[in-house]
Design goal:
It is a single chain. With 212 residues, the chain is of the alpha/beta class. It has six helices and twelve strands. The chain has a single domain, classed as Rossmann fold, CATH 3.40.50.2020. Helix content is 32%, strand content 31%. Strand 4, helix 3 and strand 5 form a beta-alpha-beta unit.
């Protein structure tokens, strides 16, 4: 039996500090957006730590040399809409050459099953490393559905990035996609009876867009 891909908790002090600020219920919508943007940039450094690189020839003021650059054109950020869009801009500041795909999912409030309403990916996914962005890994149903759909395009690799995860969501992902590494800033205690992470930070999409 193969060992499941790791669950990576990003414990950098700046990430943890900003996550604490994000959790506060009195935080304004504009402040939530700003902090989510900042924390996504910081998390991008860890998520992309082992990104593929290539050597190119450049000319310094002194001589010509071979020097490494990121194969940014081979990376695609896959946004799980809505809340995943709050992660995107910060990630793109770190990897501006990446392509962007979108998966539109909503959670049925009665069954908690993920329902797809939109799917758009770049061409030649078999040449690309996919990084899935979804701030909350709660039940894991949306994450599993997103990765199920993404695997149909046969990307070179897949990584899943969340801001906060619940143990139930991690277990669900590992049952269905043990090959996909998970990156998160926190693993919270549990889900409540409505499928929300506790202590969590509420509904990330509602807090990001100022909706209910």
């Amino acid at each position: 039996m193969n060992t499941p891909a790791p669950v990576n908790v990003i414990s950098h002090p700046l990430v943890q500090h900003k996550l604490t600020l994000l959790r506060r219920k009195e935080l304004s919508t504009s402040s939530f957006r700003r902090l989510l943007h900042e924390i996504s940039m910081l998390m991008a450094y860890e998520v992309t730590r082992d990104m593929p690189m290539q050597l190119i020839e450049i000319e310094t003021p002194m001589e010509t040399m071979q020097s490494p650059v990121i194969e940014g054109r081979k990376t695609v950020f896959v946004v799980v809409m809505r809340a995943g869009s709050g992660f995107l801009d910060g990630m793109l500041e770190v990897v501006p050459g990446a392509r962007v795909g979108h998966i539109g999912l909503y959670r049925d409030p009665k069954t908690l099953v993920a329902v797809e309403y939109y799917f758009k990916m770049p061409h030649d996914m078999h040449e690309r490393d996919a990084i899935v962005l979804d701030p909350m890994l709660a039940t894991g149903n949306s994450a599993v559905a997103a990765v199920d759909r993404l695997k149909e395009t046969q990307p070179k690799s897949i990584r899943f990035v969340s801001l906060v995860a619940a143990p139930e969501g991690i277990d669900n992902m590992r049952r269905h996609h043990p090959d996909v590494p998970i990156y998160t800033a926190a693993i919270d205690r549990e889900l409540n009876s409505h499928g929300y992470i506790v202590p969590g930070l509420g509904d990330a999409g509602d807090r990001l867009f100022g909706t209910k």
